[in-house]
């Protein structure tokens, strides 16, 4: 981290690389910072809702066409469009939708009339554990192996780990999924080939069994990305001055890394985790389709195909909010991990 | 006065059964089965069994009165909902909520006598008023029922007494009874709402639950007036990806699954644990020609394109299918083999193109919804390249096809599966995205619809189909084949036309 404090202040610097340790430059207390970030979050969400709404309106075809199909008359299509409210002006449609969202009501599906909020919460019961489980799995693999790969970066085992992570990055998730199903579900019959129990989490064992292969599939690529990050962050720390100082006090390399290095190396990894969350949600779309899991991603693909725009808007806004909130959380986590940041804007 | 009762209709059904072998029999028409299957478990059925059926197309809504397409009907028609009449898997009409009917000599008045013990799922009796309100809603001027055109010939629905419903027609309609078996004819309770979440019908099954994106569960209606269903529960699991469907069949997650990919099906041949059942469909993969603009206005170009595509080759690529020369599938009474019109002949196709002034080549757009196998478009494009037609292939989402091709007619060539049964009259509708707009064609369609006898109807419709083919309003690439793979021990599942209706009443599971 040499050199940063001497850079001109107006250049700024990536937060996770650390701020100068000294002067409090008017950042204000933590509460003010949190409030400011929250305000930014709300503005971002509002802009996102506008973008999502507007961009979806560029798609050709609408739900009235889908409802009417190939046997209805043009008059009927107009009547159906009126019935589902798709003939109102765009600002009116947007205000109607966003007004509902503000009160927690995401509207109803144009095709079925079912409540979008209810469906979102049902789908989240599949997608949230899937993404959460995959994140934990990826961390459990990537953190120890990444540190190991860094500690042994000159030895064969370290190089092998590095190569393995490269491979994990290169292989598409859906292929991994197909292979896992073939081996563990079709050949060995250890786990279900796909789907989710009809009664949801009523039988937790069955629900977890249904999520094992999808979560592993999602975690493989994620672990590969994280492993590389943990490795490079640890390597950087290993060469830092404070480790050299620690070593000169008589600590072994392992001791120095455990006591002083890991906390420092954690900062970039936490940032990466925040960014990767969006990638994970994207991956869930693919994985849910491969495993026929009734989750958010699978629903999103079907809804876009049916032009059920109110549902698509709700889903995308929810996912956007999740990503933004995670980013907010990462920001706070940084400040907790790194005392030097607590005063910074 | 001609009186026809269901006694006659039932006899006809019996004949059809005898002639065609199994109907909805479950197992395999002799020609297609790899090994013989028993039509029933022979008295060893488990009445408490749950059958899981792998399906592909999930309904977007279960409100059958406002949803287009065949998906809601596949699970609900005949199982949860009934109409006055019903049809079997081969299209033969028989009684349902009505026990008999009379047709007046001029063919314009249908008098139905209702079953007196029919009830909705909470036990409330079906009244004539329920039938009247259901049908009246469909034919109302402001109807949003996408199937309303099926009943367009009805001018009034009335009930002179609680057991009788009278339909008055604007003119004779030879297709009315068949159309009443479809989604337009279902009887729902008067004033019923919320049909998406709670389909409430009179059939042998009750709707239980729908996990959207996953499955729909039906349970046996123990209070059903007719023969009770032989299994306690039926779960339709929707598996869009062919691989997921295949894995579910292989690992026993579903008892019966739809598998269309040839390589996947072949893997089951000779496996004693599974049976392969093939059935016919009404899925007509149609290459439509836009006659309203550009080179396709010239009949020579249209004939050239038809002659330039080897349909047998396409069927080989897809692994299954039947050649048809018109939009009429072989099960329809007015079927005639028209495959000899515009036989595969690339040399003749090139000559025709040269005569039409396109000897130096021709460029056409081809729009295909991306829900169909990619190989169909690729095959057609490569065949047409051989005769000097360059194809710009556009794969679009189905809603984009509906807007661009179907509504705005902005296309040269288009491929779509016309899945509706008996849709010959669609192609004379003014404003339809392709078709025959000549007065002769609409006269034939009208003659078929208003024919006084089946023979007259068949003659007119046969002539209409021939006209379509000879004028090359489109090319019919193939009629799809449905292939299901079932676990041994499950019998009685339907095999024909399974995308429009799926009769669950005969399914049995052997005690294990």
From TrEMBL, chain A:
Pfam families reported in the protein's UniProt record: BPD_transp_1, BPD_transp_1_N
Superkingdom to which the source organism belongs: Bacteria
Gene3D superfamilies: MetI-like
Domain ABC transmembrane type-1: 124-328
Subcellular location: Cell membrane
Transmembrane intervals: 38-59, 130-151, 163-186, 206-227, 265-292, 312-333
Keyword line: Cell membrane, Membrane, Transmembrane, Transmembrane helix, Transport
Topology class, membrane: Multi-pass membrane protein
GO MF terms, alphabetically ordered: dipeptide transmembrane transporter activity
Primary location recorded for the protein, binned into one broad class: membrane
GO cellular component: plasma membrane
Family recorded in the similarity comment: Belongs to the binding-protein-dependent transport system permease family.
Name of this protein: ABC-type dipeptide/oligopeptide/nickel transport system, permease component
Lineage per the UniProt record: Bacteria, Bacillati, Actinomycetota, Actinomycetes, Frankiales
Automatic annotation (TrEMBL), chain B:
Presence of keyword Signal: yes
GO BP term (any one): peptide transport
Signal peptide location: 1-18
Solute-binding protein family domain sequence ranges: 93-417
Record keywords: Signal
Pfam entry (one): SBP_bac_5
Single GO term (MF): peptide transmembrane transporter activity
Name the record gives this protein: ABC-type dipeptide transport system, periplasmic component
Protein source organism: Frankia torreyi
């Amino acid at each position: 981290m040499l050199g940063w404090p001497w850079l001109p202040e107006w250049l700024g610097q990536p937060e996770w690389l650390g701020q100068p340790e000294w002067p409090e430059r008017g950042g204000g207390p933590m509460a003010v910072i949190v409030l400011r970030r929250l305000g930014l979050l709300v503005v971002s969400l509002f802009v996102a809702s506008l973008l999502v709404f507007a961009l979806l309106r560029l798609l050709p075809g609408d739900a009235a066409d889908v409802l009417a199909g190939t046997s209805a008359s043009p008059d009927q299509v107009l009547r159906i469009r009126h019935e589902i409210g798709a003939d109102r002006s765009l600002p009116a449609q947007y205000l109607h939708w966003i007004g509902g969202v503000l009160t927690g009501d995401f509207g109803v599906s144009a095709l079925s009339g079912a409540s979008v909020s209810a469906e979102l919460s049902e789908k989240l019961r599949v997608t949230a554990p899937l993404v959460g489980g995959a994140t934990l799995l990826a961390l459990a693999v990537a953190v120890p192996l990444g540190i190991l790969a860094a500690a042994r970066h000159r030895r064969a085992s370290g190089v092998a780990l590095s190569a393995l992570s490269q491979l994990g990055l290169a292989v598409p998730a859906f292929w991994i999924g197909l292979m896992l199903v073939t081996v563990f579900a079709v050949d060995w019959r250890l786990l279900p080939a796909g789907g989710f129990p009809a009664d949801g989490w009523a039988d937790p064992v069955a629900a977890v069994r249904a999520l094992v292969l999808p979560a592993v599939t999602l975690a493989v690529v994620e672990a590969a990305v994280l492993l590389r990050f943990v490795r490079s962050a640890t390597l950087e720390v290993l060469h830092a001055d404070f480790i050299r100082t620690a070593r000169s006090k008589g600590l072994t390399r392992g001791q120095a890394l455990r006591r002083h290095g890991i906390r420092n190396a954690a900062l970039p990894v936490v940032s990466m985790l925040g960014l990767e969350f969006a990638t994970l949600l994207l991956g869930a779309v693919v994985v849910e389709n491969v495993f026929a899991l009734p989750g958010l991603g699978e629903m999103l693909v079907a809804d876009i195909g049916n032009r059920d725009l109110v549902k698509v808007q709700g889903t995308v806004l929810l996912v956007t909010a999740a990503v933004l909130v995670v980013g907010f959380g990462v920001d706070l986590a940084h400040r907790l991990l790194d005392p030097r940041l607590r005063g910074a804007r | 006065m001609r009186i026809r009762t269901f006694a006659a209709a039932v006899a006809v059904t019996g004949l059809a059964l005898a002639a065609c072998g199994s109907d909805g029999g479950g197992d395999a028409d002799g020609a297609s089965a790899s090994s013989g299957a028993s039509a029933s478990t022979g008295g060893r059925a488990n009445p408490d069994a749950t059958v899981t059926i792998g399906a592909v197309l999930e309904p977007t809504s279960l409100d059958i009165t406002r949803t287009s397409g065949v998906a809601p009907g596949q699970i609900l028609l005949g199982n949860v909902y009934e109409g006055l009449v019903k049809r079997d898997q081969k299209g033969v009409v028989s009684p349902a909520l009505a026990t008999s009917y009379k047709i007046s000599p001029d063919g314009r008045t249908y008098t139905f006598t209702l079953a007196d013990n029919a009830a909705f799922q909470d036990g409330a009796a079906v009244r004539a008023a329920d039938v009247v309100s259901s049908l009246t809603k469909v034919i109302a001027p402001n109807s949003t029922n996408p199937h309303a055109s099926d009943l367009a010939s009805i001018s009034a629905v009335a009930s002179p007494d609680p057991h009788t419903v009278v339909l008055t027609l604007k003119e004779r309609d030879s297709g009315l009874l068949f159309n009443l078996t479809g989604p337009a004819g279902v009887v729902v309770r008067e004033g019923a709402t919320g049909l998406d979440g709670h389909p409430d019908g009179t059939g042998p099954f009750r709707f239980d639950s729908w996990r959207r994106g996953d499955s729909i569960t039906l349970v046996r209606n123990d209070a059903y007036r007719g023969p009770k269903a032989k299994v306690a529960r039926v779960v339709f699991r929707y598996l869009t990806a062919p691989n997921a469907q295949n894995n579910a069949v292989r690992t026993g997650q579903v008892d019966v699954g739809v598998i269309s990919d040839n390589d996947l099906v072949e893997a089951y041949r000779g496996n004693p644990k599974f049976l392969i059942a093939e059935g016919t469909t009404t899925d007509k993969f149609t290459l439509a020609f836009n006659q309203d603009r550009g080179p396709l206005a010239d009949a020579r170009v249209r004939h050239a394109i038809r002659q330039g595509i080897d349909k047998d080759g396409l069927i080989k690529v897809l692994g299954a299918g039947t050649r048809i020369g018109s939009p009429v599938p072989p099960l329809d009474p007015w079927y005639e083999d028209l495959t000899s019109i515009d036989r595969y002949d690339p040399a003749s196709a090139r000559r025709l193109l040269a005569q039409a002034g396109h000897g130096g080549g021709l460029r056409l757009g081809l729009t295909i919804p991306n829900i169909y196998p990619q190989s169909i478009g690729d095959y057609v494009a490569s065949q047409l390249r051989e005769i000097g037609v360059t194809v710009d292939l556009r794969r679009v989402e189905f809603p984009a096809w509906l807007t661009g091709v179907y509504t705005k007619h902005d296309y040269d060539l288009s491929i779509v599966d016309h899945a509706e049964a008996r849709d010959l009259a669609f192609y004379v509708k003014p404003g339809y995205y392709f078709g025959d707009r000549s007065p002769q064609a609409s006269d034939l369609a009208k003659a078929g619809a208003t024919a006084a006898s089946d023979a007259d109807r068949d003659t007119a419709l046969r002539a209409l189909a021939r006209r379509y083919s000879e004028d090359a309003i489109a090319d019919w690439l193939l009629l799809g084949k449905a292939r299901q793979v079932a676990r041994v021990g499950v019998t009685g599942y339907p095999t024909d036309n399974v995308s429009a209706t799926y009769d669950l009443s005969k399914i049995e599971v052997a005690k294990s």
